[in-house]
Structures are given as C-alpha cells and as structure tokens.
Please model this.
Amino acid sequence: MLAWLPFVLYAAAAAAYALHFNQRNARVGRVATGLLAGGVLAHTFLIGMQTVEAGYAPLVGTTAAVSAFVWLLGLAYLYVELTTDEKAMGTFVTVLLAALALLPAIHASEMEPRPALLRSPLFTVHVLSMLFAYASFALAFVLGVTYVLLFKEIKAKHLGFFYARLPSLQVLDVMNGRAIIVGWLFLTCGLIVGGFWATQIHASPDPRAQAMSVGDPKILFALLSWAMYSFALFARRAIGWSGRRAAWLSAIGFVIVLLNFVPVGYFLTRSHNF
Model:
C-alpha cells in the first residue's frame, strides 16, 4: 500500500491543479500544493524505507531510476512553486509525475539487488547527475509546452483561457532557458563521470560491463540527448533561437529523454539492464 501512496497523491494533486487552473480558486490551489507536498513526502519516506531495507540507495534498475526521477522532479517543481508563488505549471508537471509514478508503484516489489559492479561512488554520482539533468529537462519541457499554448492563443488574437492563467511569454522563455542550462550542466557531468566509471569496470567479466559502448541504445540515446540540448543552447545564444523555436527544441529533447528512460531502459539496452 505504501508503494501506491505517492502515485495516489500525485494523481490527486494533478486533479486539484487542473481544477485550480480552470477556476483560479486560491483555496483549491493551496489544496493542490498540499497534495503535491504530501506526495513528495510519502515518496521520500518510501525511498528511505527502501534504502534501509536494501542497505543502499535504490538507484539500481530502470524502475528505481524512474522512481528517483519522479521524486527529484516533484522536489524541483515544489521548490520553484514555493519560491515564485506561480502554480500555473502545476497541472502539467503533476500529470507527468502521476503517469511516471505508476511504473514504480506497479513494480515496487521488484527492487533489484546491487551487483558488485555498481558499488563504486562514481556510479551513484553518475546516476544522480543524470536524474537531476532529466528533472531539469522535464521542467523545460513543461515550460515549452505552456509557451506554445500561450503563443498560439496570442497569435490568434484570442486572449482568453491561457493568457489569463500563464506567465508572460518572456518569463516562460527565460525559465525554459535556465532549466535547459542547469540540465545540460548535470547531463555533461553525468556523462563524463559515467565514461570514467565505464573505463574502470571495462575489465570486469560481467557481460553488462563489456556491453558498455556507444553502440548500446541507452548510451547512444544519452549522447543524442546531450547533442540535442547542446544544439538548443547554441541555437539560443548564437542563432537567436528563443521563444517558440526554443520551446520546440526542449520538447523534442525531452521526448528523447523519455524514450531512453522507458522503452530503451526496459527492453533495448544490454549495458544498463541492472
């Protein structure tokens, strides 16, 4: 039952945020924030219990990585909301949280043991850096989606639903750019640490260590994500691709991240199927 509690609270928060987005009712907004905070707190307790039970942080396997990503994204968005008092993106973020939290809830009993291969501190730094990066990219994705919705409404000269509920296009664009910069820094760190760690374990007889190469889909998609977000940063600074173009680039980049997380992580990789 505890494994399902974060999902239930995230889903309830998504419903409350959607109601607040529609009605702009302050009381409903406070309830939505409270439900999200409760979901993050329950998720923190669950991860703590799993850590105590296993004797190490639950970062092994795709299910554990998705769970940690959801937790980090919830924490990051909650921090943004509490420091800016802006709840407009809550609907989009919590829907994503609830959808992804369903996976670890279903597979909660399948926590994988940590092989000796993964006991290096470099592995922990690598995984946490990648998850921080993906959480930042998720926020950039939400900001990009909201930018496009608002842009279309303004372009159609129909200043109504989204115009009354979302921050200005300039604010959304600036926040999107900052989220991508933070994500790119963590992603770069994660890839460098991961590459160094891979060289240390390459002599291991474990077939997963032998499979760690650019040809593995998990690593290939991670590099593709780095290239995509590097281009997004370059295009913003050197070509002037801000606003709608930057929003679409952040959306495309996050699609690559999600593909790497779920189908590639579960079914295609040979080196990261721990």
Q: What stands out?
A: The CA atoms of residues 218 and 264 lie 6 Å apart.
